[in-house]
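Troubleshooting: if your tokenizer reports a length mismatch, compare your output against this known-good record of 231 residues.
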Amino acid sequence: MAKKIENKEPSQVAQIITVLKRTIELDRKNLWIILGSVLLVLGVGVGFTTSFFQAGNWITGILLIILTLLAVFVTFSLVLTRRAEKAAYSSWEGQLGAVGAVLQSVLRRNWRGSEQPVAVNPKSRDAVYRIVGPAGIVLVGEGHQNGSQVLVDAERRKLVKIAPGVPVHALYVTESAHALKLADLRKAINKLPKSLKRTEIRVVGARLAALGVNLPIPKGIDPRRARPVRK
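Known-good structure output:
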């Protein structure tokens, strides 16, 4: 009788090792950044611990050993997360649908909308995404600068009628030298001045959802499958 093979999910340690390997593969310098950060925290902890042991304060020394180990683990986790995220975004740079993958992480917080574009040029594959949050409405153009700007301007004219008085911001992740890098998109969104409260975000989000515009993105990165590392 054939044994049933169960598909078990990899352990947390295995997942961390996989992320670490992939991060180093994407950019070799990530190894030295992660290693340097860990060794710095470890060195500081060992220094303080040694000084307390030499002074005969054993209880404090033991507590510092525990705190040092915790600090090393937290530092490793935070640095790995940041470097893995940045490496992933860099590898997606220029690919269609990459903006949607970034917006997927933004929408987990105080923002409403979709990681799918609201308008796409089927020929040039330029696209515009739309989300609403504390800063108001944010339109993100993807593809070619001129083409995406046309889509953004058309969407902005529509929003003036649907949500009058709500600030509309335009950001571009395009081939233009003046556009944002994919890795800087989330930071740019979070830096926008806040102008809406939670209740206002819900109202505006409901108005935009009523438009029923939700076009599939061209072939490229599927943001539903892309899983950027959480902060």
